[in-house]
């Protein structure tokens, strides 16, 4: 039974202040390239709720949220949009927008309550199967992320991503998904944003599983996740692609990093920062040489030696692993929000723990002269997305790029002209990257379809095209001005820099 939507299209057409700003008002209307698919994204822990429905077990984020002080507003994943219950309304919203695809993720402990593949939850896999079926029935392509940070807690008890056996466990889990959904799902993402779950989760007290093993555990997780990713790509390539004929790749947070000035030292600081943030994950897969970027390997080895470690804290790949990982992504999955600038002289002894990832990187990133907002990591610097896209194109022989996340965070309000303004500027830069620079970009994804659980900020930070009312048991979703903008963009396939935002009362 679908169509739960109640569109109260009681138009109370509120005319809003025009969203166009000085920097793009001179621009012209631009047609979107025909092959650019448009979609919206969410992730399991951020929207599903139902943390203990049926036989689901706990994820590391369930555990993390329970510890007072970990989540800014004291909320947890169970308070979020309840999509496990209300997913049909999500589909109605996607239909309303007119998207080509929906990117969502699967909760590992929902499908495999033991973490291991000896027991598959009928309820868990049934949920995703229905979601896929109903998306397809509505003409929306499902794009499925296998891992978006919610590891089963029992696997974490065994070391999680710091245990090399994670490659076996991840492969077994992926096989279950390919078997159950691969007849209908044709685009897969192995891992979402490896830096964020490895470094924030195993090196800093910032994300689950909160293993603060700075400059050691984070690098162990990074090596293991690269191998695990490659295992799943090879599994799909050999055993499933011949019949299922889909595509599979990794998604890397590709926020741009550059020097704070034109001085050679600052330019170098920016390059090293980008190698740490992006190259660590992209180089092993997309470069012709393979392995971690030389600048990062050298820097960590030097620092490790100075600190008395008999070997580098960054575990090496064997030559076989280097070859095995090379080429294991059918596309470059690209998430992007903002840019940080690095000055070489920003490093002062004592500002970072030793050892640590930040100390190894060796400089402090800032937003320069750009005005930050309530969610600094979405500070609007649209030139950065074009530079990051070009870096991918130039470094890796112009691979297919799928932009799987881009969006703006704030503290709420439905007349979100700030969000529209951000999207207009970033999409304009994306079109420059395609049309002027020749980047091969085939998807653009808005993060997010609706407000959701923004990790350690809880429910306080909003990214949604749709607002979610958390005080209402039904978690009613209301279209923001940005939802109507996105709908208009998709309907006209035209980017209008002078778009006049509008607001109607539309609820799901
Ligand atoms: C990237 C992550 O993949 C997503 O989960 C998060 O909500 C957004 N960034 C916004 O911070």
UniProtKB/TrEMBL annotation:
Keywords for this protein: Glycoprotein, Glycosidase, Hydrolase, Signal
One biological process term in Gene Ontology: carbohydrate metabolic process
Name of the protein in question: Myrosinase 1-like isoform X2
Family under the similarity heading: Belongs to the glycosyl hydrolase 1 family.
PANTHER family hit by this protein: GLYCOSYL HYDROLASE, LP05116P
Taxonomic lineage from the root: Eukaryota, Metazoa, Ecdysozoa, Arthropoda, Hexapoda
Molecular function via GO: beta-glucosidase activity
Subunit architecture: Homodimer.
Signal peptide as annotated in the record: 1-19
Tagged with keyword Transcription regulation: no
A Pfam family recorded for this sequence: Glyco_hydro_1
Keyword flag Signal: yes
Organism: Spodoptera frugiperda
